[in-house]
Design a protein that fits this description.
alpha/beta; about 425 residues; 6-stranded parallel beta sheet; Rossmann fold
Length: about 425
């Protein structure tokens, strides 16, 4: 089976490194001949051919064929339309020339390219929905509800939902909204729920590493360490997280805040200082994905605060899977995808239902009580393996979806031939 994974991001971006390439490796393990099409910012102004060749050769050694097109940013709508047309044409050519059977499109823009390729060249389209894109832009304040861009995108979404041969959503709540909770839609097309998964074995490697040694290396002996991994601002409630961290420092003077982010440090540092947290009581660091498990080894509690809104019912935070895989209980806010049911159902953390300082203090007390339970770390790791393991959940479900889409296509073809005899 041959597939083309279409992704409207660049291959060097963390999202592709952690949430695209690992799935393609799993598909390769299942015998799928995988190609990846990405859209690269800076392709014509600074990213050298030598570096591109290195990436291409590294992926080829893993059995992944990499293709790329330049990403165009402005003006927004014409640039995106241009990229959709270019991506669709290239994908259609690949279908015809290389016998691509599955067009696997990550999110709406890529799915539009996949639809063009399907119409021009054939193949079966998997709409990997990822999130409620039109609603995300409205909830973020970028688009106006009912505005032109929103209406155009909703119309495109309806067409994509009608044309696709199979679907991926990230959460059970999204499947309930879009597909009434079923594993097929009304037309019998397959639906899979595949949350953002992590390579649990990558975290398991650090179980033998001494926690005391890592804490000593970071100067954290005797501290209660609260950790946050990921972006700041936008969907992420940075002010509310700073309030929670300040409450932790006020409640327990041994507290230490460890922030691992690609954002400029001052975005969170200024907020912590304004709330009375001394510079000696926090560390903000930019680390690679490969370094994250080691830093998490030093922590006691993890934080995930995301803006609760309709579009985030479809969201599966990767950081939740990472925290649990590292054996860390989580303090999170309510209303994000399936997070509430995971955290409360598996008893691996505390869900904050009101964003207030008193609620933060209560959550910290409850989280400390959970930490006192002897099996807490093992319980968190078991939850990660059961719900977010890259191989057992992500890889298995993607391979199953591919098989279901292909089998349904063969069945439809036989049915069509039968009717025309």
């Amino acid at each position: 089976m041959r597939s083309l994974y279409i992704c409207y991001f660049g291959v060097r971006e963390p999202l592709v490194q952690t949430q695209v390439l690992p799935y393609l490796r799993e598909l390769r393990r299942g015998g799928v001949e995988a190609s990846l099409l990405t859209f690269e910012p800076g392709l014509r102004d600074g990213w050298g051919e030598g570096e591109q060749r290195r990436v291409r050769e590294e992926l080829a050694a893993e059995g992944i064929r990499w293709l790329r097109l330049p990403y165009h940013k402005r003006p927004t709508l014409p640039a995106t339309v241009y990229d959709i047309a270019a991506g669709g044409r290239l994908a259609a050519r690949l279908v015809r020339e290389h016998g691509i059977e599955i067009l696997h499109a990550r999110n709406h823009v890529a799915a539009a390219m996949g639809l063009i390729a399907k119409r021009m060249g054939g193949g079966r389209l998997i709409f990997d929905i990822r999130g409620f894109m039109p609603e995300e832009y409205v909830d973020a304040g970028v688009w106006r509800a009912g505005g032109l861009l929103y209406r155009l995108t909703k119309a495109a979404e309806r067409r994509l939902l009608k044309a696709a041969d199979g679907f991926v959503v990230l959460t059970e709540r999204a499947r309930e909204i879009l597909f009434a909770g079923r594993d097929t839609d009304d037309a019998g097309r397959p639906v899979e729920v595949i949350p953002c998964c992590v390579d649990v074995s990558r975290f398991r490697m650090f179980e033998s590493v001494s926690r005391d040694d890592v804490r000593a290396e970071l100067g954290l002996e005797g501290r209660r360490v609260l950790v946050y991994v990921g972006a700041l601002g936008g969907w992420y409630l940075t002010d509310e997280m700073a309030d929670l961290l300040a409450a932790a420092h006020g409640q327990d003077a041994s507290s230490f805040s460890l922030i691992l982010t690609q954002n400029p440090p001052e975005e969170i540092a200024s907020r912590l200082r304004a709330r009375g947290v001394a510079d000696s009581d926090f560390l903000i660091s930019k680390v690679s994905p490969g370094e994250v498990p080691r830093y998490l080894k030093a922590a006691d509690l993890a934080i995930s605060f995301i803006k609760p809104c309709y579009s985030k019912l479809s969201s599966s935070p990767t950081k939740l899977a990472e925290y649990l895989a590292a054996g860390l209980p989580v303090i999170c806010n309510a209303g994000i995808g399936d997070v509430d049911s995971v955290v409360e159902g598996d008893r691996v953390g505390v869900v904050v239902r009101e964003l207030s300082r008193e609620s933060y203090r209560e959550a910290l007390r409850a989280a400390d009580a959970l930490r006192g339970e002897g099996d807490m770390a093992a319980r968190c790791r078991a939850s990660a393996e059961r719900r977010f393991d890259l191989e057992k959940i992500g890889g298995e479900r993607y391979r199953r979806l591919y098989e279901r889409v292909m089998l349904r296509g063969e069945s439809d073809a036989l049915g069509y031939e039968g009717r025309t005899v």
